[in-house]
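Whether sequence alone determines local backbone shape is best considered at the level of individual chains. When preparing material for the folding task, we compiled for one chain both its residues and its backbone structure tokens. No coordinates are needed to read the tokens, only the vocabulary itself. For completeness, the protein is quoted in full, as a sequence line and a line of structure tokens:
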Amino acid sequence: LWIFYQAKSELGVFTEEALEEMRDFETKLKQVGSWEENCKMARETGVCDPPNSVINEFFTLGESSGDVMQMKTDGTGALASIDGVLKGWVRDDNDWWVDADFGPLNMKSMYTRASFRGGLPLRGFTSRQDRRATQNAKAEQYLIQLYDEYLKRFDETGRNALSYKHISITWSETKWLQTHEITR
């Protein structure tokens, strides 16, 4: 599932307010339905892989184990220095989350993106091939629920509409939701 964020102001998507809204959106997305059963996860740990999102770069949490301090980049920590993260992206030539105008002289972007990966085997199945049709049906059912209860509300107007003050959100999923959205 691809998520695309667009700034509603010329300040870009990397402001405290916009980042907080992105984090809110992603947190709520993971609360709809059964994300924990449908996410791409490390088989050894059974823990969902974090989404590929700027939220994991900007909201970090330091964890210490004895004499070792490690950064936990899962979007649950406090907001890091926005300027520091952006300077690090310039230094490392990281252009994955920014638009074409981003660079050392323009450290803002009007757009960014995130990807949430689902994947087989789903929780409770032993392999990708274990009851494959059942797994596919469960994954499709989850995505349809996600669309019906959450994603489509960003395209609606009126009482059921969801929107944010600093960002606009669009999304893409090309296996199941594309057909579902068109036929609804």
User: Anything to note?
Assistant: Strands lie at 2-7, 41-42, 47-48, 52-53, 59-65, 68-72, 78-79, 111-115, 167-172. Residues 5 and 169 are 5 Å apart (CA to CA).
